[in-house]
Amino acid sequence: MLQLRLSCALRNCRPAYRSFNTTAVRLKPLVILDEQHATDKVTNVTPAILSKIPMRLHNQTDHPLSILKTIIQSHYDDFSHFSSLSPLVTPFKNFDELSFPKDHPGRSVTDSYYINKDLMLRTHTSAHEVQVFGEKQDKWLLTADVYRRDEIDRSHYPVFHQMEGARLFDATAAGMKEVEEDNARLEGILKQSNIVIEDIPHISEANPVQPTHNPAHAELVAKNLKLSLNSLILRLFGSGERSSPLRVRWIEAYFPFTSPSFEVEVFYGGRWLEILGSGVVLQSTLDKANVQGKIGWAFGLGLERIAMVLFSIPDIRLFWSQDERFLSQFKSGEITTFKPYSKFPACFKDLSFWNPEGSAPLHDNDFCDVVRDVAGDLVEDVKLIDSFVHPKTNRSSSCYRINYRSMDRQVGFTREQE
Ligand code: DAH
């Protein structure tokens, strides 16, 4: 079946969808969230991806993602919260409004899902920053499903969930006094707890203050960002008895829409885990939202990453499971340890094929989308294990190893029934 679908995809003859972008063909409109959308030569959403759009796992009661969302929400209890914005956004909103350069790789059809050239599935919750700041919100959280074309393994899935948070202050003496008071409050909380923070300067030559900002204001706001997130991390990872302190480290980063910018890693389960990106909001983002006289911070964190660690969920596909043995294990407000109920052996199948004549080898993400369409969540991971170029004809072939391993089935179960 996969072989058949693949050859179909390679010949570009799937009726309403195409995984990749060769010659233009007429495609049927797509109905997404009850609205019809035209398709064109950049359309690359697949049925497997479209089927996830209505699911909104982050709003499903007792789902680990919604439990985590609610805990973060309760930590930021005076923030407004948005959690049902449509994932359909313009590339302008996803990228340009946030100052992404024109040649940013995230814009490519191999990295992002396009409905047509003017409409895509958001790749991050930051896509809504200008919109929400424009509603004159100074303290807000936003949770949503986001979509990125990716390879297949236990920790990557093309749909995942992010939570964006932001806080703005008046860029005045009174506003900065408010920041200082909040910083003192947060420092008090952190001082009493068993947490070790590896910090870096709030501002440096490589991670500069924005030209329109007063450096003293930017320092205070960046400090507030760090303290606020350190206290959130303490809330999430620091509970329970621990013999060694919780370790957190701040790392210099780059995002097109913040400066200075930071990433945060938490030492958990014996390794450093990157959990979020953050920074001082670019003035141009606030200008586009018509917000004047303010300075502030924003962050975006990946809910699955954190939930996998906190609930001990070993495979990202499990979040999509409708199996009661998965869903019944979680209760609102509680972080519990997941007990696996399926131990299926790995089942490898290798699949090789010639790439279309005269074109580059198939992109891994294109192959993975075909696999997801055909085999759905039965596939645990996919690896390119061999590529070959024929010395005479110059044609190339690829060989992928597909690991079929159900996350829900149980080996013993059927045997016992027999
Ligand atoms: N949107 C970024 C991502 O998906 C994460 C991020 C970084 C969000 C910096 C922010 C921010 O709000 O300020 O990788």
TrEMBL record:
Extract one GO cellular component term from the record. Answer: mitochondrial matrix
Main enzyme class: ligase
A Pfam match is tRNA-synt_2d
Q: Which family is this sequence assigned to?
A: Belongs to the class-II aminoacyl-tRNA synthetase family.
Q: What is this protein called?
A: Phenylalanine--tRNA ligase, mitochondrial
The answer to whether the entry has keyword ATP-binding is yes
Which SMART domains does this entry report, sorted A to Z? FDX-ACB
